[in-house]
Amino acid sequence: MAARKAPERPNVSKEELLKYYREMLLIRRFEEKAGQLYGMGLIGGFCHLYIGQEAVVVGLEAATKEGDKRLTSYRDHGHMLACGMDPKGVMAELTGREGGYSKGKGGSMHMFSREKHFYGGHGIVGAQVPLGAGLAFSDWYKGNDNVTFTYFGDGAANQGQVYETYNMAELWNLPVIFVIENNQYAMGTSMKRATKSVTLYGRGEAYGIPGEQVDGMDVLAVKAAAEKAVAHCRAGKGPYILEMMTYRYRGHSMSDPAKYRTREEVEKIKTEKDCIEHVRDLLTQGGLASDEDLKAIDKEIKAIVNEAAEFSKESPEPALSELYTDIYA
Amino acid sequence: MAIQVLMPALSPTMEEGTLAKWLVKEGDVVKSGQIIAEIETDKATMEFEAVDEGIIGKILVAEGSAGVKVNTPIAVLVEEGESADAAVAAPAPAAAAAAPAAAAAAAPAEPKAPVAVVSKASPDWAEGTPMKTMTVREALREAMAEEMRGNGNVFLMGEEVGEYQGAYKISQGLLDEFGPKRVIDTPITEHGFAGIAVGAAWGGLNPIVEFMTFNFAMQAIDHLINSAAKTNYMSGGQLGCPIVFRGPNGAAARVGAQHSQDYAAWYAAIPGMRVVMPYSAADAKGLLKQAIRDPNPVVFLENEILYGKSFEVPDLPDFTIPFGKARIWREGSDVTIVSFGIGMTYALEAADKLAAEGISAEVIDLRTLRPIDYDTVLASVMKTNRCVTVEEGFPVGSIGNHISSVIMQRAFDYLDAPVINLCGKDVPMPYAANLEKLALVTTAEVVEAVKSVCYR
Ligand SMILES: Cc1ncc(C[n+]2csc(CCOP(=O)(O)OP(=O)(O)O)c2C)c(N)n1
Ligand SMILES: [Mg+2]
């Protein structure tokens, strides 16, 4: 059986590694719990899990500062947890309860937090790309050095609006980082069945936008690339493209049997490339943390997730009068 | 403590499924997250993982069992040393909380003698035609397959229509039969492929464009309206556009505001467009075949919740249903209920309830919204003198508004009560289960509206 490569000893502190470990594990356990609640009928509709891709958002968030903005697609639970939104409020939105971030009205795909500068949660493929450039426009207009992170998938990358946005973002020098989460499938369509132009980061070249491809399963590589992109944006040099090579372990949504890829393909990535196992190895093999230390973190995370699940069950359904509120500002 | 394992919900619209296979047996130890069974939903076979850990004490539903309702106990997990028999009575984990009751029910009407329900024979096929039972999903698939067999210029394009066999399995098997030149998987680029399909139609082909749902057709709507619907006129009749845009429309279940919208009234507003919104499987089949043959652009609005519903369909090698002809599902004398698409579910349920209370409702399914069969509606209203319209879309600018205005202009003197338009509520679709229920039109609302126009 193929084992993971022995990790190189990177120049990174124990505290930093533990932080990534904790944040990625929180996302994974949260998503596993969400999958279970879906099976129990507590979560309805579409529910897209982020399991496998945790290093992308955790690595990028490590390069942000207060004031930076982010937005993504419907596969959004990980992004919310990584930017510091409360797991209880996220889970309660998944169950459609009053205590959810959108008071139960938005659901899994449509959640927002102005406080954490999280601008959704968008259900329509590609929509967040110009929206993210628009948020960046607002910061450019105000003259501050905030950056917007617009996450989208390999499938979304084929949308025309992406290229309209690239053109304007570079034309107007907007501080936006286009983060392509290339998990290699758009629902059941592998990238190669959707395009012959497979180096997605390279598509910015035609518009003058620099970009690079990054191992999105390696949180340290993600963070290093993010820092570079952020520096470019904050220096007023305009947009940047980061293509994160990653993989989703679960089906596209809870109702996707994922017959378009082999079990072996999934297992191979899980055993050789898993982002959490990678950091775990760095910690244990580097003698930075013992199994006991990590077990304690596992326990702590489990408690947070269980608490979120309990909250999401106990929080009441929204009052019926909520049907007609919030339609207009 | 023993824990019951319940039949899981594995898709937004799943109500029951087949327990295809157990991957564990009684006595096996299972871990949380372990895959313990394979379950077939209406769309796919899914793996089901254990939520809790324990030992499989008893399997309550044998593999191969079909029609197992969501949340039925299917197995019992016990702890080491615990008896499996005691475990059968184990408490079920908390399932979704029941939504609180909606608005208070109307005051009970005086009991009236029930009236007979007269189901009108369909005029679309000859008396005595052999019938077969099929789902709307199968009917749509048959319609496409038959037309593709009959005309080599008909092809299907859309997201996941080929190798994936359709996001909602409408195109299942078509790739195998017709090959990748005629069953074309597209990237997620609605604006682009809708335009390409319109161009192909001008070039002499007959495209069927599947939108995964009509919510995503909003990215393409410019080509549907500006390119497909208007060009015959703008070209002085030279450039007709024989194309079908089809896919699920309207609310599914709990998919929120961006994925739950009924576009019937939007497309029905457009001259140059044909708009079809079938309810039954027979209509889905006959009208889709007609749509594929029509020389004009057709927006064909399906419904995810109806896909799995079975109806009687004529067992004929070839039949079509013409556009612009409503179907009278029930004859009645006290009130006319006009609906289409999934609205018919509520209209027909309400008619049954009303019959039991002595109110005889005539139920009309418009079936096509452009053209609309005004004559059938007007003849009925002239007989019953009352009308209620039922649809899922937004209330402002609804099909019901339009029907009311036509009735007012052409049958004003026949009306004994104002026409009531029942629609979805004037709000974006909420996600929460209780609010979603409230946002949709219901059978109870139809019953109440009918009583109100009958002054009962
Ligand atoms: C405009 C539009 N078309 C189709 C869909 C249905 N849909 C939802 S997600 C998806 C696949 C997107 O894949 P990708 O962009 O790679 O993101 P991933 O799901 O892999 O994160 C599709 C086709 C949609 N939501 N919006
Ligand atoms: Mg993808």
Mean pLDDT of chain B: 92
Class per helix and strand makeup of chain A: alpha/beta
CATH homology group of the largest domain in chain B: Thiamin diphosphate (ThDP)-binding fold, Pyr/PP domains
Helix % of chain A is 40-55%
| 3D shape of chain A | globular
Q: Beta-sheet strand percentage of chain A?
A: 5-15%
Based on Cα principal axes, name the global outline of chain B.
globular
Spell out the blueprint of helices and strands.
The complex is a heterodimer of chains A (329) and B (456).
Chain A: H1 14-39, H2 54-61, E1 69-71, H3 77-82, H4 87-94, H5 128-142, E2 148-153, H6 160-171, E3 176-182, E4 185-186, E5 189-190, E6 211-215, H7 219-234, E7 240-245, H8 263-273, H9 275-285, H10 291-314
Parallel strand pairs in A: 1-2, 2-3, 3-7, 6-7
Antiparallel strand pairs in A: 4-5
Helix pairs in contact in A: 1-2, 1-9, 1-10, 2-7, 4-10, 5-6
Chain B: E1 3-6, E2 16-22, E3 29-30, E4 35-40, E5 45-49, E6 54-59, E7 65-69, E8 73-78, H1 84-88, E9 118-119, E10 131-135, H2 136-150, E11 154-158, H3 174-178, E12 183-185, H4 190-202, E13 206-210, H5 221-229, H6 231-234, E14 244-248, H7 264-268, E15 274-276, H8 281-293, E16 298-302, H9 304-307, E17 310-314, E18 327-331, E19 335-339, H10 343-356, E20 361-365, E21 368-370, H11 374-384, E22 387-390, H12 399-411, E23 420-422, H13 433-439, H14 443-453
Parallel strand pairs in B: 11-12, 11-13, 13-14, 14-16, 15-16, 19-20, 19-22, 22-23
Antiparallel strand pairs in B: 1-8, 2-4, 2-7, 3-6, 4-5, 6-8, 9-18, 10-17, 15-21, 18-20
Bound molecules: thiamine diphosphate and magnesium ion (MG).
The site of magnesium ion has 6 residues of chain A, from strand 4.
